[in-house]
Amino acid sequence: MHYQPKSDLLENRIILVTGASDGIGREAALTYARYGAQVILLGRNPDTLQQTEHAINRLNKKPASSLLLDFSHATPESCQQLAQQLAQQVPRLDGVLHNAGILGEIVPLAELEPHIWRQVMQINLDATFFLTQALLPLLLKSDAGSLIFTTSSVGRVGRAGWGAYAVSKFATEGMMQVLADEYKNRHLRVNCINPGGTRTKMRASAFPDEDASLLKTPTDLMPLYLYLMGDDSKRKTGISFDAQPGRKPGPASA
Protein backbone atom coordinates (compact mmCIF):
# COMPACT_ATOMS: atom_id res chain seq x y z
CA MET A 1 0.00 0.00 0.00
CA HIS A 2 1.54 3.29 -1.11
CA TYR A 3 0.13 5.36 1.73
CA GLN A 4 2.03 8.39 2.98
CA PRO A 5 0.74 9.30 6.45
CA LYS A 6 1.33 12.70 8.00
CA SER A 7 3.87 12.61 10.83
CA ASP A 8 1.22 13.69 13.36
CA LEU A 9 -1.44 11.29 12.03
CA LEU A 10 -2.21 9.83 15.46
CA GLU A 11 -1.54 12.86 17.66
CA ASN A 12 -3.81 12.86 20.74
CA ARG A 13 -5.06 9.34 19.92
CA ILE A 14 -5.21 6.64 22.58
CA ILE A 15 -4.74 3.19 21.05
CA LEU A 16 -4.72 -0.27 22.62
CA VAL A 17 -2.82 -3.11 20.91
CA THR A 18 -3.26 -6.76 21.93
CA GLY A 19 -0.43 -9.24 21.41
CA ALA A 20 1.99 -6.32 21.65
CA SER A 21 4.98 -8.34 22.85
CA ASP A 22 6.39 -9.35 19.47
CA GLY A 23 5.80 -9.67 15.74
CA ILE A 24 3.17 -7.51 14.10
CA GLY A 25 1.68 -6.36 17.41
CA ARG A 26 4.98 -4.99 18.67
CA GLU A 27 5.71 -3.27 15.36
CA ALA A 28 2.22 -1.74 15.21
CA ALA A 29 2.52 -0.43 18.77
CA LEU A 30 5.89 1.17 17.98
CA THR A 31 4.56 2.62 14.72
CA TYR A 32 1.48 4.10 16.34
CA ALA A 33 3.69 5.70 18.99
CA ARG A 34 6.01 7.16 16.32
CA TYR A 35 3.00 8.89 14.77
CA GLY A 36 1.97 10.50 18.03
CA ALA A 37 -0.37 8.03 19.73
CA GLN A 38 -0.51 7.18 23.40
CA VAL A 39 -0.24 3.40 23.22
CA ILE A 40 -1.54 0.86 25.72
CA LEU A 41 0.10 -2.54 25.35
CA LEU A 42 -1.78 -5.71 26.18
CA GLY A 43 -0.21 -9.14 26.48
CA ARG A 44 0.40 -12.09 28.77
CA ASN A 45 4.18 -11.98 29.17
CA PRO A 46 5.29 -9.14 31.47
CA ASP A 47 8.94 -9.34 30.40
CA THR A 48 8.45 -9.08 26.63
CA LEU A 49 5.66 -6.54 27.11
CA GLN A 50 8.05 -4.40 29.14
CA GLN A 51 10.62 -4.63 26.34
CA THR A 52 8.07 -3.16 23.90
CA GLU A 53 7.18 -0.48 26.45
CA HIS A 54 10.85 0.49 26.88
CA ALA A 55 11.34 0.59 23.09
CA ILE A 56 8.41 3.01 22.77
CA ASN A 57 9.59 5.14 25.66
CA ARG A 58 13.01 5.50 24.00
CA LEU A 59 11.27 7.27 21.10
CA ASN A 60 10.77 10.29 23.39
CA LYS A 61 7.14 10.49 22.31
CA LYS A 62 4.16 9.79 24.56
CA PRO A 63 5.05 7.11 27.14
CA ALA A 64 3.41 3.71 26.74
CA SER A 65 1.72 1.70 29.46
CA SER A 66 1.12 -2.05 29.77
CA LEU A 67 -1.73 -4.25 30.95
CA LEU A 68 -1.55 -8.01 31.49
CA LEU A 69 -4.22 -10.35 30.20
CA ASP A 70 -3.79 -14.01 29.31
CA PHE A 71 -6.36 -14.68 26.59
CA SER A 72 -6.23 -18.43 27.29
CA HIS A 73 -7.89 -17.77 30.67
CA ALA A 74 -9.82 -14.58 29.85
CA THR A 75 -13.46 -14.44 30.94
CA PRO A 76 -16.18 -11.82 30.46
CA GLU A 77 -15.56 -10.82 34.08
CA SER A 78 -11.77 -10.43 33.75
CA CYS A 79 -12.22 -8.38 30.57
CA GLN A 80 -14.79 -6.11 32.22
CA GLN A 81 -12.41 -5.70 35.15
CA LEU A 82 -9.60 -4.72 32.77
CA ALA A 83 -11.87 -2.21 30.99
CA GLN A 84 -12.80 -0.64 34.33
CA GLN A 85 -9.12 -0.39 35.24
CA LEU A 86 -8.44 1.23 31.87
CA ALA A 87 -11.33 3.70 32.27
CA GLN A 88 -9.59 5.02 35.39
CA GLN A 89 -6.42 5.68 33.36
CA VAL A 90 -7.77 7.10 30.08
CA PRO A 91 -10.90 9.09 29.13
CA ARG A 92 -11.57 7.03 25.97
CA LEU A 93 -10.05 4.71 23.37
CA ASP A 94 -9.60 5.98 19.81
CA GLY A 95 -8.45 2.64 18.50
CA VAL A 96 -8.08 -1.05 19.30
CA LEU A 97 -5.94 -3.43 17.26
CA HIS A 98 -6.75 -7.06 18.00
CA ASN A 99 -3.50 -8.78 17.07
CA ALA A 100 -3.23 -11.54 19.72
CA GLY A 101 -3.85 -15.04 18.40
CA ILE A 102 -2.51 -18.58 18.14
CA LEU A 103 -2.15 -21.03 15.29
CA GLY A 104 -2.99 -24.29 17.02
CA GLU A 105 -1.97 -27.28 14.90
CA ILE A 106 -1.92 -27.70 11.14
CA VAL A 107 -3.52 -31.14 10.82
CA PRO A 108 -6.71 -32.51 9.19
CA LEU A 109 -9.84 -31.76 11.23
CA ALA A 110 -10.36 -35.48 11.78
CA GLU A 111 -7.04 -35.56 13.68
CA LEU A 112 -7.34 -32.28 15.57
CA GLU A 113 -7.28 -32.75 19.34
CA PRO A 114 -10.40 -31.28 20.96
CA HIS A 115 -8.34 -29.41 23.56
CA ILE A 116 -6.40 -27.66 20.75
CA TRP A 117 -9.69 -26.70 19.10
CA ARG A 118 -10.97 -25.24 22.38
CA GLN A 119 -7.71 -23.38 23.03
CA VAL A 120 -7.69 -21.75 19.58
CA MET A 121 -11.34 -20.75 19.87
CA GLN A 122 -10.82 -19.39 23.38
CA ILE A 123 -7.90 -17.17 22.36
CA ASN A 124 -8.75 -16.20 18.78
CA LEU A 125 -12.50 -15.83 19.21
CA ASP A 126 -13.97 -15.95 22.73
CA ALA A 127 -11.43 -13.75 24.53
CA THR A 128 -11.35 -11.35 21.57
CA PHE A 129 -15.14 -11.03 21.77
CA PHE A 130 -15.18 -10.64 25.58
CA LEU A 131 -12.55 -7.91 25.40
CA THR A 132 -14.24 -6.12 22.50
CA GLN A 133 -17.54 -6.11 24.36
CA ALA A 134 -15.84 -4.70 27.47
CA LEU A 135 -13.99 -1.97 25.51
CA LEU A 136 -16.90 -0.77 23.36
CA PRO A 137 -18.03 1.91 25.85
CA LEU A 138 -14.54 3.46 25.80
CA LEU A 139 -14.36 3.25 21.98
CA LEU A 140 -17.74 4.96 21.65
CA LYS A 141 -16.41 7.95 23.60
CA SER A 142 -14.07 8.70 20.68
CA ASP A 143 -15.07 11.09 17.89
CA ALA A 144 -13.55 8.67 15.37
CA GLY A 145 -12.99 5.22 16.86
CA SER A 146 -11.32 2.43 14.89
CA LEU A 147 -11.62 -1.25 15.81
CA ILE A 148 -9.37 -3.59 13.82
CA PHE A 149 -9.42 -7.40 13.88
CA THR A 150 -6.72 -9.66 12.44
CA THR A 151 -7.87 -12.17 9.85
CA SER A 152 -6.23 -14.54 7.35
CA SER A 153 -6.72 -15.81 3.80
CA VAL A 154 -7.82 -19.13 5.37
CA GLY A 155 -10.62 -17.19 7.10
CA ARG A 156 -12.14 -16.46 3.69
CA VAL A 157 -11.56 -19.69 1.78
CA GLY A 158 -11.09 -22.83 3.85
CA ARG A 159 -7.90 -24.76 3.24
CA ALA A 160 -7.08 -28.35 4.20
CA GLY A 161 -5.15 -28.71 7.42
CA TRP A 162 -5.76 -25.22 8.79
CA GLY A 163 -8.43 -26.54 11.14
CA ALA A 164 -9.40 -24.46 14.16
CA TYR A 165 -7.32 -21.46 13.07
CA ALA A 166 -9.23 -21.15 9.78
CA VAL A 167 -12.61 -21.56 11.49
CA SER A 168 -11.69 -18.95 14.11
CA LYS A 169 -10.81 -16.48 11.35
CA PHE A 170 -14.06 -17.12 9.46
CA ALA A 171 -15.80 -16.26 12.74
CA THR A 172 -13.62 -13.17 13.19
CA GLU A 173 -14.66 -11.92 9.75
CA GLY A 174 -18.30 -12.46 10.76
CA MET A 175 -17.86 -10.64 14.07
CA MET A 176 -16.29 -7.68 12.24
CA GLN A 177 -19.16 -7.50 9.75
CA VAL A 178 -21.85 -7.67 12.44
CA LEU A 179 -20.19 -4.96 14.54
CA ALA A 180 -19.60 -2.75 11.50
CA ASP A 181 -23.30 -2.94 10.67
CA GLU A 182 -24.35 -2.33 14.27
CA TYR A 183 -22.21 0.81 14.60
CA LYS A 184 -22.43 2.18 11.05
CA ASN A 185 -24.32 5.23 12.32
CA ARG A 186 -21.95 5.88 15.21
CA HIS A 187 -18.40 7.26 15.36
CA LEU A 188 -16.90 3.76 15.20
CA ARG A 189 -15.57 1.91 12.18
CA VAL A 190 -14.79 -1.80 12.29
CA ASN A 191 -12.50 -3.59 9.82
CA CYS A 192 -10.19 -6.58 9.39
CA ILE A 193 -6.58 -6.78 8.24
CA ASN A 194 -5.18 -9.90 6.62
CA PRO A 195 -1.40 -9.46 7.05
CA GLY A 196 -0.53 -12.23 4.57
CA GLY A 197 2.68 -14.22 4.91
CA THR A 198 4.93 -12.19 7.24
CA ARG A 199 8.26 -12.83 8.91
CA THR A 200 7.01 -13.75 12.41
CA LYS A 201 7.37 -16.63 14.88
CA MET A 202 3.83 -17.80 14.16
CA ARG A 203 4.57 -17.93 10.45
CA ALA A 204 7.75 -19.92 11.08
CA SER A 205 5.79 -22.48 13.10
CA ALA A 206 3.30 -22.86 10.23
CA PHE A 207 5.95 -23.11 7.49
CA PRO A 208 9.19 -24.29 9.16
CA ASP A 209 10.92 -25.03 5.83
CA GLU A 210 10.08 -21.69 4.22
CA ASP A 211 12.80 -19.20 3.30
CA ALA A 212 11.84 -16.35 5.65
CA SER A 213 13.95 -13.87 3.66
CA LEU A 214 11.29 -14.06 0.91
CA LEU A 215 8.62 -12.75 3.27
CA LYS A 216 7.62 -9.19 4.06
CA THR A 217 8.57 -7.95 7.53
CA PRO A 218 6.01 -6.50 9.97
CA THR A 219 7.46 -3.04 9.20
CA ASP A 220 6.56 -3.47 5.52
CA LEU A 221 2.88 -3.82 6.42
CA MET A 222 2.55 -0.75 8.61
CA PRO A 223 1.11 1.70 6.02
CA LEU A 224 -2.22 -0.18 6.11
CA TYR A 225 -2.18 -0.38 9.92
CA LEU A 226 -1.66 3.39 10.03
CA TYR A 227 -4.28 4.10 7.37
CA LEU A 228 -6.99 2.23 9.27
CA MET A 229 -6.15 3.96 12.58
CA GLY A 230 -6.05 7.51 11.21
CA ASP A 231 -8.68 9.89 9.88
CA ASP A 232 -7.98 9.02 6.23
CA SER A 233 -10.06 5.84 6.66
CA LYS A 234 -12.97 7.53 8.46
CA ARG A 235 -15.65 6.28 6.07
CA LYS A 236 -14.27 2.77 5.68
CA THR A 237 -16.12 0.15 7.70
CA GLY A 238 -17.08 -3.50 7.34
CA ILE A 239 -14.14 -4.20 5.02
CA SER A 240 -11.53 -6.96 5.13
CA PHE A 241 -8.27 -5.45 3.86
CA ASP A 242 -5.19 -7.26 2.54
CA ALA A 243 -1.86 -5.89 3.71
CA GLN A 244 -0.28 -7.68 0.74
CA PRO A 245 -2.80 -7.44 -2.12
CA GLY A 246 -2.26 -10.01 -4.86
CA ARG A 247 -0.09 -12.29 -2.73
CA LYS A 248 -0.93 -15.95 -3.28
CA PRO A 249 -1.65 -17.96 -0.10
CA GLY A 250 0.83 -20.63 0.91
CA PRO A 251 4.64 -20.81 1.26
CA ALA A 252 6.73 -18.00 -0.23
CA SER A 253 8.62 -18.84 -3.39
CA ALA A 254 11.39 -16.99 -5.16
Give a structural overview.
Helices cover 39% and strands 14% of the residues. It contains seven helices and seven strands. Helix 1 crosses helix 7, helix 3 runs parallel beside helix 4 and helix 4 packs parallel to helix 5. It is globular and about 50 Å long. The mean pLDDT is 93.
Keywords:
254 residues; alpha/beta; 7-stranded parallel sheet; 7 helices; globular
Order of helices and strands: EHEHEHEHEHEHHE
Q: Could you say which structural class the secondary elements and strand pairing correspond to?
A: alpha/beta
Helical content band: 25-40%
Unreliable stretches covering 5 or more consecutive residues: none
Compact overview of the structure:
The protein is α/β, with parallel strands linked by helices and 254 residues long.
SSE blueprint:
Layout: E1 14-18, H1 23-34, E2 38-43, H2 46-57, E3 65-68, H3 76-87, E4 95-98, H4 114-139, E5 145-150, H5 163-182, E6 188-194, H6 201-206, H7 218-229, E7 240-242
Parallel strand pairs: 1-2, 1-4, 2-3, 4-5, 5-6, 6-7
